[in-house]
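Practice problem. Given the sequence and the SMILES for S-adenosylmethionine, write out the predicted structure.
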Amino acid sequence: MINNRGGSTYYNNSWTMQVLNITEFVEFIYTKYPEANIIELGTAYGGLTNLLCDFYGKIRSYDNNPTAIAYSKHAEDSFLIGDLHDDLFLKEQFKSNLEEEKVTIFFIDGGDKALEFNKVKKYAKPGDILMVHDYMINQEDFETRGKDVWNHFEVGEDDLDLEGITRAPFFDRGISYAWGAYQKQ
Ligand SMILES: C[S@@+](CC[C@H](N)C(=O)[O-])C[C@H]1O[C@@H](n2cnc3c(N)ncnc32)[C@H](O)[C@@H]1O
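Answer key:
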């Protein structure tokens, strides 16, 4: 893996907007939830998608910009195009998750992560994990420890509609990678 100074990371030559040690976090999640169904919101250049595919095989990753496909390696059939802020599109894509047997882990990392979290939670079933990126608990948390983790703060706990949702058991670990980790009850 080659890193750059901005805190962004290359995973097998595809750019991922993640902390340098993101592989270690994905490996941790895989060890805990090896059978999970994975959905990424916000593909960008496909680095995290490819990393998730290397652990899980086929996953689903959504973006409204088809550029990402050009950068994908083995993950071509995991890339899906659509507007994640469109309620009809979300319903069409995600309503079947409510009947899915496996735990689903949502990696929420699109253009407005709090909005996406609040929309997608409707399609999460009990036990599903909702991960939201560019996260610290609040601005103060970002100022005190977050800046050592990641260069961007977008979502705090108060931005999230947490009715029926609690912090996931590995919430504290998620913070070390700029991911907020929650679980549907
Ligand atoms: C922060 S990047 C994703 C980074 C990627 N998950 C990674 O780890 O490398 C956000 C992506 O969300 C996409 N996006 C923004 N608004 C969107 C929308 N309304 N629907 C779908 N994708 C959107 C952008 O095109 C961009 O590629």
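Check your answer against the key. The first strand starts at residue 2 and ends at 3.
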